[in-house]
Design goal:
By secondary structure, this protein is α+β, with helices and mostly antiparallel strands. The protein is built from four helices and seven strands. The strands form three sheets. Strands 1-2-7 form a three-stranded antiparallel beta sheet, covered by helices on one side. A two-stranded antiparallel sheet has the order 3-6. A two-stranded antiparallel sheet has the order 4-5. A hairpin with a 2-residue loop joins strand 4 and strand 5.
Length: 176
């Protein structure tokens, strides 16, 4: 009987070993499936990024065409207001304006400027002296003299279009 019990024990041990191998193989298959799923997730994100890039490029090219049309139409409006000789034209859907930008002062050589500057064109803060661009512009305008080390950048006329929003239009409509 010992031989028979050994045989049965061997069969049981062999069955348990096979069962363990099958269990390990099963869980290894689960790991393989998880790896495949994670790779698919990564691929989906890559594909969506590529699709988003394609859509963004399409939108940029389409909007570029629209922006060129808008710029062309704004140029027509600017030409119109200049031909009319007016500074402001108020229209139902927007306002056209021509405004002159203020002159700008640029310090090109700070040492030369400070050597020739007086208290009219600088702001003195204890321990430092710095140019006051507003005072410089006023000084040059009033005296007519150019200060060394200073460049005046003359303001240019600028066209401005202000669109009226739909909300504003709705607020201004009389009640019936």
């Amino acid at each position: 009987m010992t031989e028979e019990t050994n045989f049965i024990e061997d069969l049981i041990a062999e069955a348990e070993a096979n069962e363990e191998k099958k269990t390990l193989a099963y869980f290894d298959l689960i790991i393989m499936e998880i790896a495949r799923l994670e790779e698919e997730i990564s691929e989906n994100f890559n594909n969506s990024d590529q699709e988003a890039a394609i859509i963004k490029q399409w939108a940029l090219s389409r909007n570029n065409v629209l922006q060129e049309k808008s710029d062309f139409l704004k140029l027509k409006l600017e030409n119109f207001i200049r031909e009319e000789g007016k500074k402001t034209i108020d229209l139902p859907h927007g306002t056209l304006k021509i405004r002159k930008l203020p002159d700008k002062v640029e310090i090109t050589d700070i040492e030369t400027f400070l050597l020739n500057a007086n208290q009219d064109v600088v702001t003195i803060i204890p321990e430092s002296v710095k140019p006051d661009l507003t005072k410089i512009k006023t000084y040059i305008r009033n005296s007519g003299r150019q200060l060394p080390g200073v460049t005046i950048i003359e303001g240019v006329e600028q066209f401005k279009l202000t669109l009226k929003s739909k909300e504003t239009k709705n607020d201004n409509t009389p009640e019936t």
